[in-house]
Specification:
The chain has 434 residues and is mainly alpha-helical. The protein has helices spanning 7-11, 30-60, 65-92, 95-118, 124-152, 158-186, 189-207, 221-224, 228-240, 243-273, 278-306, 308-319, 333-363, 370-398, 401-414, 417-420.
């Protein structure tokens, strides 16, 4: 999207490797700067809601572990239901417009929560509906935003562009979740959700400044008759048929499954079992944001030193086992510190994986299939979140919250194996791209 760029510009230096000099910066492009700003505002909304919504359910609606699991499941269920066709739709539509509509829907939906609270009519079914609708909008926003980056910047700028966006995710986790925890303590839960809704609406307004894409050339009669299921199947074959993409998909899905098992139960653990504050939960999650930010900022430098694929493999081998430290969390400060350091190590690896893995995915995928490739990955990644949230609630009801944390830690500790045992580990340079 954005101002059309000359084909030569977009593919220049596509054969660059991680051993080259520092690639050109994407910040010269005003549309990329606008995308970054809009994403920052959207991240603020997402991270405040990440903390505030389950606390609304726990504190105001007395939700059970199973109900918390259902709430978390519904927030990502849309990726299982419409994730794959969304990729084909995104490839057929204008991503900028989709992102704006998605942010508007998320902002209005979350604004209904404090309104219902103040009217005394907020219920769990209302929260369920809000998180499901906003999850549907997030499907289109996420797939569109990842698909639009290669259209805004040159191929040789993808690593720094992705590093900037992943760093933003890390910073958003630090700032948004810390702000969310602080707002919950200083004011009240409704006002925290108001801040989140405002972030989404401001993001939608900001994204209108990205120059609209030129109209696509008319499709040939043969292309216009291609069924949606055929396009979805093409995206699946592209991802699952490539050993490197398949390994990245497996590792990311396992990491998400383990992390979501843990994160779904943390509000219950902190508030009910440990008697800690919302601010303490926000700070713990913010430690994960610090790890992601550091991983994103250092990913390229590490890859230059050790090689592209080796970095992805060794980061998992060295850091993933730290996930087993998270279940040690307790009221004592030193247990909180140990668990926080383990979480920071896991999310540092996630930051490295996101920068290098997303760039590799983009380089291995033709432009015309970016939406379907990203949708396939989001279907697998976010679908694993939905399944894990449901499993977390059910497992906590039948065993204990602490057991859920140990199972989640085991998943995060071993999730690196598909990439470590795949051709990704031997790759030194980026592919030329399509």
């Amino acid at each position: 999207m954005g101002t059309p760029q000359d084909k030569t510009l977009r593919t220049a230096d596509a054969a660059g490797t991680v051993g080259d000099d520092a690639p050109p910066s994407p910040w010269h492009n005003p549309d990329f700067r606008t995308l970054f700003t809009g994403t920052a505002l959207s991240q603020l909304g997402s991270n405040v809601c990440y903390l505030a919504v389950p606390l609304v359910a726990v504190s105001a609606l007395d939700a059970t572990p199973a109900q918390i699991g259902a709430l978390s499941t519904l927030s990502t269920l849309a990726f299982l239901l419409i994730g794959l066709p969304a990729g084909a739709w995104v490839d057929r539509m204008r991503q900028r417009r989709l992102m704006i509509v998605a942010d508007l829907l998320r902002g209005v939906s979350f604004a209904s929560v404090p309104l219902a609270w103040w009217l005394g009519s907020l219920t769990l079914p209302h929260l369920y509906a809000v998180v499901f609708l906003t999850g549907c909008a997030t499907v289109f926003f996420d797939v569109s935003s990842q698909s639009v980056v290669p259209q805004l910047v040159r191929r040789d700028e993808l690593v720094p562009a992705n590093a900037a966006l992943v760093s933003l995710m890390g910073f958003g986790s630090i700032a948004g979740r810390s702000v969310g925890g602080g707002l919950v303590q200083l004011v009240s839960l409704p006002y925290a959700v108001v801040v989140a809704a405002t972030g989404y609406l401001a993001s939608a307004l900001t994204l209108t400044r990205i120059a609209p894409a030129p109209a696509a050339p008319p499709a040939t009669p043969a292309a216009s008759r291609v069924p949606l299921r055929t396009q979805i199947a093409e995206g699946l074959r592209h991802v699952l048929g490539n050993p490197e993409l398949r390994a990245l998909a497996a590792t990311g899905s396992l990491v998400n499954f383990g992390s979501q098992l843990i994160n779904t139960m943390l509000p219950l653990l902190f508030v009910r079992e440990l008697g800690l504050t919302a601010g303490a939960l926000g700070l713990f999650w913010a430690a994960g944001g610090v790890g992601m930010l550091l991983g994103a900022r250092t990913a390229r430098r590490i890859a230059v030193r050790f090689g592209y694929g080796r970095t992805l493999g060794l980061a998992g081998l060295c850091l993933a086992p730290a996930g087993l430290l998270v279940p040690l969390i307790g009221r004592d400060w030193w247990l909180l510190l140990i668990a926080g350091c383990g979480w920071l190590a896991v999310t540092f690896k996630t930051g490295v994986d996101n920068v290098l893995g997303v760039t590799l995915r983009q380089r291995l995928t033709p432009d015309a299939m970016l939406g379907r490739m990203n949708a396939t990955f989001r279907f697998l990644f976010m679908g694993s979140l939905a399944l894990a949230a449901a499993a977390s609630g059910a497992l906590a009801e039948t065993t204990s919250v602490r057991t859920v944390l140990w199972v989640g830690g085991a998943f995060t500790a071993t999730a690196f194996l598909p990439v470590f045992l795949s051709p990704v580990r031997t790759r030194r340079a980026l592919p030329e791209g399509s």
